[in-house]
Each structure stands twice: as structure tokens, then as C-alpha cells.
Design brief:
Largest sheet: 6 strands, parallel
Number of helices: 11
CATH topology of the largest domain: Rossmann fold
Shape: globular
CATH superfamily of the largest domain: Response regulator
Radius of gyration: 18 Å
Order of helices and strands: EHEHEHEHEHEHHHHHH
Number of strands: 6
Structural class: alpha/beta
């Protein structure tokens, strides 16, 4: 029985590279869908049975971390691999904290993706070989410093969605249309976000979103 895979990345070249290696070398993995943002992932997940999700961490509209949280909320048994250019410990720990089972660096994804899919499908964890050093070093040194930004955690799910769209350059009116909200509701969310983060300028919100990996440059 084949492993049903959903591939989510806003770069067609990345999707094509992963699809190519899977179709060439793994006859037990079936890519049943390709999408370009987290909202499309959620729409697909509601209508289809997926064994493993591969999510780009920096997708537009709804990023990979937020999508992971939504998928785990929908079904705690959902198996997710994050695809990322970031090799920092904070990004790795953050994705595992929110429920991902795998973390693949894009630079090595083609070489490791088949093994990662098989491991995660079995309920195991898989990290790119280049980043396992963080886990090993942390274990050997007795350090367990999960780097989760408490300010970001205290934002509601809707506020995090609004923050991403603000950082991507959407106006209040466009955000309202995108999320099916009243413009005044978006204004209230924006005000609450600024108060909770103690950031009171638009440029500051953008810098914060980039630093936290909510959006990419």
C-alpha cells in the first residue's frame, strides 16, 4: 500500500525536484497533491486522506508552522515534515514543539526525502543530518532550552494569520477579504497584535515577522 503524500511549497522548482526523485526512486510513495500555501494545504486535508505532509516553512498566506499547528489540531496523528532553508536550532525546536515529525534542509532534501518520508510515516522523527548536531549537543551538554517566543505564543491563531498577511504587504481591506472578516475586525486584530508584541509601527511588525520566520525576505 503506497504512502500518500501532499507536497506544499510556493516554488514550483522545489516541488518538481522532490517529485522527480520520488517518482524515480520510490514506487511505494504517491504524491496525491501539490499546493503552494498553507490555506491550500488545509483545504486539501479536509477532503483527502494524507499519510505524510511535506510543508515549506515559509509559505505565503499561511506559513508552514501555522499550518502544522492547524493540522495537528485537526488530527494529532497527522505526520508532517518541514522543508526549510533555516538550519538554526531555534527553527528546528520550534517546528518539533508544534508537532512536526521531520525537518529537512532544502539543500539536502533531494538526497534525504525518501528516507525521511518512510521514517515519519512509521511515526518516527527524522532530521537532516546537518542539524542533528543541535539535538546531540543539547543532550550531551544537558541543555534543554526550547526557544519558543512567548509573545508569539500569546497571539491568537487569528492574530498570527493577520500578522503574516500584514508582513506580506496586504492592506486591512485585502486582509478582511482574504480571511472573510470585517475591515473593522482586522483593525482591532492589528491593534491587539501591536499591544501584545509592544510594537507600534508597521515596519516593526515586518521585521518581527521576518525574524520569527513567519514570512521570508
Amino acid at each position: 500500500m503506497s504512502i500518500k503524500l501532499l507536497l506544499a511549497d510556493d516554488h514550483p522548482v522545489v516541488r518538481e525536484g522532490i517529485r522527480s526523485v520520488i517518482e524515480r526512486t520510490a514506487d511505494d510513495i504517491e504524491i496525491i497533491g501539490e499546493v503552494s500555501n498553507g490555506r491550500e494545504v488545509m483545504g486539501f486535508a479536509r477532503k483527502n486522506l494524507v499519510d505524510v505532509y511535506i510543508l515549506d516553512i515559509s509559505m505565503p498566506i499561511l506559513n508552514g508552522i501555522e499550518t502544522t499547528m492547524k493540522l495537528i489540531k485537526m488530527n494529532p496523528n497527522n505526520r508532517i515534515i518541514i522543508l526549510s532553508i533555516h538550519d538554526s536550532r531555534s527553527f528546528v525546536e520550534k517546528t518539533l514543539y508544534y508537532g512536526a515529525k521531520g525537518y529537512l534542509l532544502k539543500e539536502s532534501a533531494v538526497d534525504e526525502v525518501i528516507h525521511a518520508i518512510h521514517e515519519v510515516n512509521k511515526g518516527r522523527y527524522y532530521l537532516s543530518s546537518a542539524i542533528t548536531k543541535y539535538i546531540v549537543n543539547g543532550f550531551l551538554s544537558g541543555i534543554h532550552s526550547l526557544d519558543i517566543n512567548e509573545d508569539l505564543v500569546h497571539l491568537t491563531e487569528r492574530e498570527r494569520e493577520v500578522l503574516q498577511l500584514i508582513a506580506e504587504g496586504f492592506t486591512n481591506k485585502e486582509i478582511a477579504s482574504n480571511l472573510n472578516l470585517a475591515v473593522n475586525t482586522v483593525h482591532v486584530h492589528r491593534k491587539n497584535i501591536m499591544q501584545k508584541l509592544d510594537i507600534h509601527k508597521h515596519a516593526g511588525l515586518i521585521r518581527y515577522a521576518i525574524k520569527e520566520g513567519i514570512v521570508k525576505l
